């Protein structure tokens, strides 16, 4: 019985035109410029495991290799150690689902044929379009767009990445913004006006939000630092004085609170990276509970919190339960850990209204990897919902409506996407 329910849920999901709630996918025009698309270049997060296991990036690992045979000999020992890891299974799923790979492991006997298929297929002129549109069946990808960059609206919806706004004590960063908005940012109030102008320009072109990923390099904790304190610190930066970290943090915190207010005033979503960092990340700094002062002080700002705050996914569930302005975004999660994804979702469904759960965000560069991720996502969501129906007194009707909410409807509502029926 549970098997057939799981199957029904999977079928239902395949028909949903999914909104990808967090994307870094290469633009189509850039994709075909990448010269070597192969088994060895098409990596997603396993790249980080290569670095962790060997101390080298994959380009360093393959440096000097003159053939794919040599590259394979260098990759093999990494796989021997790390093939159990979820970031590698993401690759295997992608190979099986998109490149007719029929085995469960890469071996001396099968890698060459797979490599040839990848090279061949990815060279087809309609491949990019086929993968994102026909195979993934995506409505749009909410794409993280760095300052001054562009996107392709036929595939993407923009949110503007804002870490640079926290670093305007750096002369280079400041001059870049000055050039772009064509005005000098000679004090804190001019600086803020410049930021608003930048954000509004993107909004006029269709951007639906702003994004911060500062948890990669500093604590998520920030305080509402008074304007006068931040203005003095900025003056000192303008005078070319070196700032200590506590001083820089005062200015950064002030700008973070300012951005939260701007997001509310302009009706933009405020996306924030929480949890999971890169190698050597300072894990406690990424705890989403550090955001409480910001979230409480900005109750009319809609916060879209990423990556289940993993490993603080239970904490972020309670944070969202108690904060009606927080949406929980599963971006990146299924390739980090399928089991952690299932546990997070299963608890959140007990805790948080169904209209504040965002079930999928690809968070990868290659369109092919979106599909591998989506297959893993659907599998986890089907496991969780089938079990909720079977054990936790959730009705099948509620489970089916959650699928639509999590994979599409909530994102359409939150980001204000055109809501034409599928
Ligand atoms: Zn991301």
**What is the fourth-level CATH superfamily of the largest domain?**
Metal-dependent hydrolases
Mean pLDDT: 96
The major sheet is characterized as: 8 strands, parallel
Number of domains: 2
Number of separate helices: 19
Strand order of the largest sheet: 1-2-3-4-5-6-7-8
Question: How many DSSP E strands?
Answer: 8
Q: What share of residues are in beta strands?
A: 5-15%
Uncertain segments: none
State Rg: 22 Å
Ends apart, CA distance between termini: 29 Å
Describe this structure in words.
It is a single chain. This protein is an alpha/beta fold and 422 residues long. The protein folds into two domains: 38-121, uronate isomerase, domain 2, chain A (Orthogonal Bundle); 127-415, TIM Barrel (Alpha-Beta Barrel). It has 19 helices and eight strands. The chain has an eight-stranded parallel sheet with strand order 1-2-3-4-5-6-7-8, sandwiched between helices. The chain is globular. The relative contact order is 0.14. The model has no long low-confidence stretch (mean pLDDT 96). The structure holds zinc ion (ZN). Zinc ion (ZN) binds at residues 22, 24, 144, 363.
Short recap of the structure:
This protein is α/β, with parallel strands linked by helices and 422 residues long.
Descriptive tags:
single chain; alpha/beta; uronate isomerase, domain 2, chain A; eight-stranded parallel β-sheet; 8 strands; globular
């Amino acid at each position: 019985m549970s098997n057939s329910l799981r199957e029904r849920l999977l079928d239902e999901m395949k028909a949903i035109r999914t909104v990808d709630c967090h994307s870094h996918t290469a633009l189509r025009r850039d994709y075909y410029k990448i010269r070597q698309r192969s088994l060895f270049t098409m990596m997603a997060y396993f790249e980080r495991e290569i670095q962790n296991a060997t101390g080298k990036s994959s380009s360093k690992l393959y440096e000097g290799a003159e053939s794919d045979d040599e590259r394979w000999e260098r990759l093999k020992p990494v796989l021997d150690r790390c093939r159990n890891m979820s970031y590698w299974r993401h690759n295997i799923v992608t190979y099986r689902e998109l490149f007719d790979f029929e085995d469960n492991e890469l071996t001396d006997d099968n890698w060459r044929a797979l490599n040839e298929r990848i090279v061949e297929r990815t060279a087809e002129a309609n491949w990019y379009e086929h993968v994102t549109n026909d195979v993934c069946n995506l409505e749009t990808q909410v794409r993280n767009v760095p300052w001054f960059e562009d996107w392709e609206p036929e595939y993407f919806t923009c949110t503007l990445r804002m870490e640079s706004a926290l670093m305007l004590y750096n002369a280079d960063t400041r001059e870049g913004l000055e050039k772009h908005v064509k005005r000098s940012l000679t004090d804190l109030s001019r600086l803020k006006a410049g930021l608003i102008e930048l954000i509004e320009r993107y909004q006029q072109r269709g951007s639906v939000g702003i994004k911060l990923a500062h948890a990669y390099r500093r604590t998520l904790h920030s305080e509402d630092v008074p304007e006068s304190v931040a203005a003095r610190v900025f003056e000192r930066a303008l005078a070319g004085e070196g700032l200590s970290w506590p001083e820089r943090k005062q200015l950064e915190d002030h700008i973070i609170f300012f951005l939260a207010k701007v997001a509310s005033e302009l009706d933009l979503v405020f996306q924030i990276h929480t949890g999971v960092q890169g190698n050597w990340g300072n894990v406690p700094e990424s705890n989403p509970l550090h955001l409480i002062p910001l979230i409480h002080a900005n109750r009319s700002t809609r916060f879209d919190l990423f990556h289940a705050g993993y490993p603080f996914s239970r904490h972020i569930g309670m944070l969202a339960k108690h904060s009606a302005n927080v949406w929980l975004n599963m971006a990146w999660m299924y390739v980090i850990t399928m089991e952690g994804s299932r546990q997070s979702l299963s608890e959140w469904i007990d805790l948080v209204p169904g209209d504040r759960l965002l079930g999928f965000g690809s968070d990868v560069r290659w369109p092919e990897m979106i599909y591998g991720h989506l297959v893993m996502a659907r599998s986890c969501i089907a496991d969780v919902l089938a079990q909720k129906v079977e054990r936790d007194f959730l009705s099948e009707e509620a489970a089916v409506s959650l699928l639509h909410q999590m994979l599409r409807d909530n994102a359409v509502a939150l980001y204000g996407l055109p809501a034409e029926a599928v």
